[in-house]
Write a structure and sequence with these properties.
Blueprint (H helix, E strand, L loop, with lengths): L1 E3 L14 H20 L12 H6 L5 H22 L5 H45 L6 E2 L2 E9 L9 E7 L3 E9 L3 H18 L6 H19 L7 E9 L4 E7 L5 E3 L5 E3 L22 E4 L5 E5 L1 H4 L11 H6 L6 H15 L9 E8 L4
Antiparallel strand pairs: 1-3, 2-3, 3-12, 4-5, 5-6, 6-7, 7-10, 8-9, 8-11, 11-12
Helix pairs in contact: 1-3, 3-4, 4-5, 5-6
Length: 369
Amino acid sequence: MDLRPPSHPRHHRSPTVGHAQLAVPFALIALVTTVDVLAPPEVHLGPFLAAAPAVTASFAGPRMTGFVGLVAVLAQVVVATTRTSLTDLNHTFQIIALVMISMFATFFAHLREVHEKEVTQLRSVAETAQEVVLRPLPDRIGPLGVASVYLAAAAEAQIGGDLYAAARTATGTRLIIGDVRGKGLEAVGDAALVLGAFRASAHQEAGLPGLVDYLEAAVSADLDGAGDEGESFVTAAVLEIPDAEPVVHLVSCGHPPPLLVLRAGGAELLEVDRPAPPLGLAGLVASSVTAQTFAFTEGDVLLLYTDGVLEARDRAGAFYPLARRVTAWPGLRPQALLDRVCEDLLAHAAGNTLDDDAAMVAIERSSAP
């Protein structure tokens, strides 16, 4: 499980082969050779030596697999010369078969290594693209203290399209958090589209409904051009926090509701009365975009998150109870709150890994301008 802000590059290294793993095929060769030498004349254990290069090919590269195969062949030669001779027909065929199996195992180890390198390279490209798109948020934006974190799922999972961004206006701060339907580079590209549209329009649109309409138009135009209308969409929460008023204006486009952690204790889900459809689906659903206002006073912390947080399951299949857990940790600043949630989320998730990427942003209103 990878846990770090997205501004830090991710480095994927090829799995290292441990001494314990290498000990298995060599121990197998030694065991089979010893037993075969001591066995009665009618018992032949040489075919079991083929398991050594076959097992090695599952975790090691072609060089090590070939070396193990060579050792296995030499062991079979030792057995042949000890029990009878190299010209014995039975042992001759065993040696030939072992050589062929070792060659096949070495070839497949080469194919596996090539495939792993290709997958690592593709994942690195996707993650680099995602990190370029998902710029880190500053620790302070106007009167707001801010912290953000991106939680990557298990190493074998695909890259997701979680996104967040913030923009300063003349009167306050606008933020967006969202989740693109889908995985891989296509999802990263859709996230880049949404973030680009947000950064371009956040300073220009007078109100949140106008900003959301702009985002909807940008996403719908891209989906129309791709010919996959209705198949791809983006859930998002778009917020505006004025500098001079202790409130937050919210438009929810099918996204999980933000969680307001109160300074006085407790937490509230900011569920809007009239949510808008996810971005990219407005043409399929008759609706109007409206912003709803909630109290957001000094000392309160607003927690934004994607559904990867809520969908984390424990071994019994229970979802992560975010609101209940956060309520038990009053008075934490944004970064401390995210650190605690991340630690607890990993402890909750089965195997300490997430099935889906997740992003979180914590915002605290303070009196300092």
